[in-house]
Amino acid sequence: MSRDPFRVLAVPGSLRSGSLNRRLLEAVAEQAPEDVEVTLFEGLGDLPHFNEDLDTRPGPAAVEDLRARMHGVDGILIATPEYNSSIPGVLKNALDWASRPYGTGPLVGRPVAVVGVSPSAFGAVWSAAEVRKVLTASGARVVETELGVKKANTLLDDAGRFADGDTVAAALGLITGLREVAAEAAAEAAADSAVA
Ligand SMILES: Cc1cc2nc3c(=O)[nH]c(=O)nc-3n(C[C@H](O)[C@H](O)[C@H](O)COP(=O)(O)O)c2cc1C
What we know:
- The protein contains five helices and six strands, in the order βαβαβαβαββα.
- It has 196 residues and is α/β, with parallel strands linked by helices.
- The site of flavin mononucleotide (FMN) has 16 residues, from helix 1.
């Protein structure tokens, strides 16, 4: 009997065509286990600037698309660059849209893991920590694992793919973290319904 795949939305926090963050997520999608389905989110640049005046029900089409894609998966994997020691504006913008409607938005209760990727020697760990802070404030179930990929520009092959097996394996480990957090949530929900 085949089981439904564990569905993951992979969100690169960069619009750059040669983004190292996107390339890591592409490698994760290619090398994910058979029972995991990883879809890359390509719509970050289509989102309007967050504006509460635009936060209607329904909201702008690109925002509703982001929310629907997040609602439709079992977990989210974010790969973030670091800009000036913090979260790139385009990613923070997406997280702010996804944090609404307050209490029922797609981040509430959803397993989310974060990796930072940088050509620097620090691996975007400050940015990744801030992304986790924002996710926690938005009600997500955040995988606690800290993963920063340093000197990422040296880890690609001639075709521009992430060639470093240890790095890709570590990123795949975040999907294991997502599955564990999702299993915890399911166990809690089962316990709650048994009490009710
Ligand atoms: C405005 C700006 C600020 C940056 N600040 C940092 C920084 O604080 N820390 C860091 O590790 N890299 C910093 N970088 C370099 C980025 O890590 C690098 O451009 C990286 O490749 C961006 O991610 P991407 O390859 O996924 O687009 C900065 C780059 C830009 C354009």
